[in-house]
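Problem: given the chain below (276 residues), write out its structure.
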Amino acid sequence: MSERRPYKSDLSDERWALIEPVTTGWKAKHPSVSGHQGRYEMREIVNALLYQSRTGCQWDFLPHDLPPPGAVKYHFYKWRDDGTDEVIHDLLRWQVREGRGRLADPSLVVLDTQSLHAAAGVPAATTGRDASKKVPGRKRGLAVDVLGLVVAVVVLAASVHDNAFGTALLDKVAAGTSTVTKALVDQGFKKTVVDHGAGLGIAVEIVERNPADRGFVPQPIRWRVEQTDGILMLHRRLVRDYEHRPASAESRVYWALSDVMARRLTGTSALAWRGA
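Solution.
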């Protein structure tokens, strides 16, 4: 860490201490067949991922004083495929919730989707056009708790109906925790989602908008998911979908919010958009 000047996105010692046990445990379970310990520190690998998340840079444009793209890619894809990224995220989420005097897992979640333009080069087979919002690309679905912390994320083509997102998100929520008994959704979700939730033991309530409202009017509790969508927009890698695989786009959400939660747990101010 003393060999280079730090970037604003770098982990502090306190934030690294929250993540280090997971990466150390992962490395111990994945020894090199040659016995080599690896040239790059896990902390620097994570710093490179957070740098890319905040700046939105391409793999080949990672700064030369961070680990090379090949090494960072290797860990990003490995952690995406074996769920390490989600493990880190969930451990931090539990700590934030407990720090707020709540149980580790929620009893209520809020579901919503957000359509994003896809970058050039993203495979057409995994993209589509949101007929309602006229957005070509992908759609990101989130299930968040009452603090706005993500419980599940699903990324699919923008042409996929919210019903499919709702059922997929509920499946992930039910698989990840047995404590959720209620979900709030907007009017884009239909009876299909309500029925699917009932089969999982989750009561889905469709929150209807007041016909007299004009423009954006925050809905009680449901506004939390809108807030989380806005927080994700501070991470430029998430403003547009650059990932070839939807699973990579989901992993980017976990890394961005892990950074946010680690900052909250250590009392570190988040970077402003203009300062990033």
